[in-house]
Hints:
This protein has helices at residues 9-17, 95-98, 106-126, 133-155, 163-184, 256-263, 277-298, 316-329, 331-335, 357-360, 374-383, 396-408, 422-434, 445-448; strands at residues 40-60, 63-79, 84-92, 226-233, 267-271, 304-308, 337-341, 365-367, 387-390, 412-415, 440-442, 470-472. It has 484 residues and is α/β, with parallel strands linked by helices. Helix 6 runs parallel beside helix 7 and helix 7 packs parallel to helix 8 (316-329). Mean pLDDT is 92; it is low at 1-33.
Amino acid sequence: MAASSRITRRSFLKAASVGTLSPLATGLMIAAPKRKASDIRIKEILVSYEDFPYRTPYKFGGRSADRVTILNVHCTAETVSGHVAKGFGSMPMGNEWSFPSKTLSYDTTLNAMKRLAERIRKINEGYTEPGHPIDINFALEPEYLKASAEVTQEMRLDRPIPKLCTLVTASPFDAAIHDAFGKAHNLNCYLTYGPEFVSHDLAHYLTPEFKGKFPGQYLLRAPKPWLWCNHSVGASDPIEESDIKKRLNDGLPETLAEWIVADGLNHLKIKLDGNNLERDIARVLHIDRVATEVETHRGIRHWYYSLDFNEQCPDVDYLLSFMRRIEKGSPGGYERITFIEQPTRRDLVATPEQLLFRASKLKPVVMDESLTGFDALLRGRKIGYTGIALKACKGQSQSLVLNAAAQEFKMYMTAQDLTCPGASLIQSAGIAAHVFPIATLESNGREFVPSANRPWLGKFSGLFEVRDGKLHTASLVGPGLSAV
């Protein structure tokens, strides 16, 4: 760049701060981390989509999903020394969950995510500064949010694209960059999160208390050999034979009782309405009766439940009434409840009156839809949340940073998916298998969209087909994120 046209870092940041210069308008960097020889530059990003029908509808949070569009991202990156590597990331777009709307159609919210994905692709290709994938993601996230606001305006949507939806759309890009970074150095990604690779310590992303600490010290260097599969029981799933209106006869289990026997399950994630107390109570007691009968017959002494209200409870009193009634109706069933997931609304800013302390004294109360960043984590703790659910669909980089925060705060930790098949399940399992406090992983792609898993069945033994209630993760040691 000629001296007359060179923009200094100081003038660039000053212009960006007053809105006269887009941080990516010139392909310049947003922040100036200390350079490392291991840093990579993004060279090219390609995207593609796959569409799959659900085997059977999945009901949650008052909504029902019957199809999925998967966003696949291929990233070509180059190290400072000129070594080129290719990375891959994949994630269901999950618009029913990340962009719920009573006025916008499924196709409209999906189209908004696709438009946003194209903006994110261009943002990544326009970012030419070398860095570690975590640095790149946190530098670009403000641009992703700006792009989502632009898509909202262009499509004249009646509500903004939520931050959660933006994170979901960006997550396969983030995964592809991490994957490329690991492959560029011929290392599994979970060996690249220490100070020898990461430019900033965690104080840069969290608070000064994290000075000198890095994401890698909160991770296992090798994956756990297996995780318990937390089997999802959708709000309309048949529990026993009498609940089936018409059998699918496709060779897979169709009732909860059949799933327990076929996969050797002992962890069940129960989806509930959250706005129909009597129905919620009856459903949990029904599930407990059937599970008790089946598990006792199998000779299993210990099995567990988690409860997911998908933010539908009107207030904590609903939750407390529910818990009291469950304890009265089945003391054993109550004891088997390990945690409660996202009982009330996701927007912690607009609804700060959601106080959950009375509930979290009974069981851990876990953030899911509300957890969109460290700021949200801090707000959640202030109103009574005592746990978090890590999800690959919110980004590899964010998961690594929030994992460190949650461990320092001694919060309850679990891992959930987004009906993740294929590479997206591998990414989810990689996170869960490297975080010591996490013992379970939701994996419902095998239930609702098994067709998307078929090409992967022979690649990772025991991960896509549950054995003895376990998801086997010992093989996730390949370069990058291990998927391809």
